Amino acid sequence: MGLNVHASVQSYRGNHLDLDPTYTDVHGRPLLRMTFDFHDNEARRMRDLVGRAEEIARAMGPRDIRVNGLKVPYDITVYQTTHNVGGTATGRDPATSVVNTALQHWDAHNLFVLGRSVFPQNVGVNPTPTIAALAYHGLGRMRDEYLGDPRPLDA
Questions:
Q1: CA proximity to 57, closest of 3, 124, 125
Q2: For 83-150, what is the HEC assignment?
Q3: Which residues carry out catalysis?
Q4: pLDDT at 81
């Protein structure tokens, strides 16, 4: 039997995606670069969760137990189950966000961002239902408020 735990990862400005200045695809276009690492908060939270999971597992009386912890610094070459989200901050102020609450880009009102990038925090498990709900919300705003009168929507 296996027992897995997941801790959430907070949003940090230093964790981001951008275009790589060095590496390109076969057409010369820059590749996507991910800058990401766990912070002390995540390491402490995961140590606590792993410790509690180990207590539970030992109480079950296993023949054998193997405990794996969070790998810090983050290493993309070793599989670590993650559901990283965020990157396109949603808000009411274009100075501190990328899209408004309708998921419409502040600088290009005909661009709606539907996906996990607008979901700022993942509390641990699969974020798909929340992402779907956000997309449903954004599409509803687009259909009900934008398509008949294309314009920047109120936050």
A1: 3
A2: CCCCCCCECCCCCCCCECCCCEECCCCCCECCCHHHCCCECCCCCHHHHHHHHHHHHHHHHHHHCCCC
A3: 83
A4: 67
| Distance of alpha carbon 148 from alpha carbon 144, whole angstroms | 8
Taken in order 48, 54, 60, 61, the sign of the CA dihedral is negative
pLDDT (tens digit per residue) in 85-96: 777 889 999 998
- This prediction has a pTM of 0.67
Average pLDDT for 5-10 = 78
Whole-number Å distance between alpha carbons of 113 and 105: 7
Answer yes or no: are the C-beta atoms of 19 and 30 closer than 8 Å: yes
- For 101, how many CA atoms within 13 A lie in the half-sphere containing its CB? 5
Residue 32: in which H helix or E strand, if any? strand 30-35
DSSP 73: S
Token pair in block for residue 154: 């109120």
Distance CA 60, CA 57 (A): 5
